[in-house]
Amino acid sequence: MLSKNTWALAAGIILSVSCSSEKTDSESQNAVSWDRSASLTDEAVDDLVEEGEIPETMGACLAAYEASEDFTVGDALDFQTRNAFEGDVLNKVKFKDEKITEEQRFILYSINARMINSVDIRLENPNGIYCIDISAEMINSIKVKADCNAEVLETSIASDFLNKFKFSVFNEDECEGEEEDGPEKEEEVEESEEAPEDAAPEEEQPEEEAEAAQ
User: How many Å from the N-terminal Cα to the C-terminal Cα in the chain?
Assistant: First the structure.
């Protein structure tokens, strides 16, 4: 059954600038001893971000997740990062998450580039609670397909130009309580009237494909 968090993604796009933090050697030596069984409250999320235990992007996703207090600090510490993908000009970026976890798991995807032609993400883990972070000066299109039982907390897109965003569910017939109209919704986003002048034609861009490591 589709969660209200998943439907929230289909209803719109959240534009924000995000960054991640890394622990230094000195910070690691003074690592905080966490109570893994403690409830994942807003204060706990803030503390985890401040201590560098989770990236700011993941912290923002958890802060917006109404059911976060149903989870523990240990759940947040055990979040998974699918292969981050970076480059200058990327023609095609493909992520496919086929790993099915027995329990619900927080998962972070991230892409960082100057220009991206297309992003195609397929989220097949019904127990996945996903956070997606994409940063580029120009993005032509983003497509996200998710299992109907998966939850997508937030798509954080930092870009001067985004042409098209599309979210859909690929197995709606397997979900209970679906609405008749179906879950697919397409968003046309115009952040600027024209793409940057230095944007390379699609056929001239080097083709790059990345599939998340399982």
Answer: 25
Distance CA 93, CA 124 (A): 17
- Distance CA(163)–CA(189), nearest Å, equals 6
Q: Is there a domain that residue 28 lies in?
A: no
Distance of CA 148 to the CA centre of its chain: 16
Helix (H, G, I), strand (E, B), or coil: what is residue 148? coil
* pLDDT > 70 fraction of the chain, expressed in percent and rounded: 66
Strand partners, 41: none
How many domains, in total, are found in the chain? Answer: 1
pLDDT per position as a tens digit, 144-175: 999 999 998 877 788 889 999 999 998 888 88
Note whether residue 210 is domain-resident: no
What is the model's pTM?
A: 0.68
Q: What are phi and psi of 191, to 5 degrees?
A: -85, -25
Query: CA 90 to CA 71: how far, in whole Å?
Result: 36
Q: Please check the confidence at residue 33 and state whether its pLDDT lies above 70.
A: yes
Q: Does residue 64 fall inside a structural domain?
A: no
| 87: enclosing H helix or E strand | strand 85-97
Helix, strand or coil, per DSSP, at residue 51:
coil
Give the structural domain span for 169. 4-14+81-192
- Looking at the domain assignment, is residue 50 inside a domain? no
* % of residues, the chain, pLDDT over 90: 40
